[in-house]
Amino acid sequence: SDDPELGPFDVLISAEVDVEVPAQEMGMLVEMSVREGAMVEAGQTLAQIDDSTARVSADRARVDLKLAEYKFHNDLQVQLAQKALGVAEAELRRAQNANEQKANTVTQTEVERLQFLRDKAELDVDQATRNLREAELTVEQMRSVLALAELAVQRREIVAPISGQVVEVRRQRGEWVQPGETVFTIISTDRVRADALVMWLRPSDIAAL
Predict the structure, then answer these.
(1) Which residues lie below 8 Å from residue 135, measured CB to CB, with a gap of 6+?
(2) Which phi and psi angles does 125 have, rounded to 5°?
(3) For residue 186, which of 38, 77, 73 has the smallest C-alpha distance?
(4) pLDDT tens for each residue of 146-184
């Protein structure tokens, strides 16, 4: 028969996903955790950029946050201002009652002084309340600062974005890297593509082989 028959064929296996893993921050590589050919899981640490300065900043941010929280939870200033206002109001009221019972028992100058002290105490309460609100805002600000500091530490850890095989390591321990600079190349082993080159041969061609 002259009908073609299926003969020898070649198959090329290639990865569908090829990922370059860059450094996210500038610094020196102080640790390389994998070598070329290593199999890695998504999220696995591949290398570490020096994060000593970033960690110091994060530690300082934690201390600043604790201090801000202490000030926010300490409402002693408000309590004292409120008590002072109560005392000033009581003294003014006594002076006014005394004059109602008998005119000029308390001089007008003294009444005005007591009124001034009462008004000042009220303003002190308002200021203490504002200070407490400012302390609350400072807490929120320090939490944001700490979050950024912790992120700076995290970004200095180079991790695998996918599971696969490390096929290239472009930098070594002790070398300096820049943000965006590729340090590793990983290919995914989860999905592969098979490209087959099929040769159609006639019976006479097969016999010749």
Answers:
(1) 68, 71, 72
(2) -65, -45
(3) 38
(4) 999 999 999 999 999 999 999 999 999 999 999 999 999
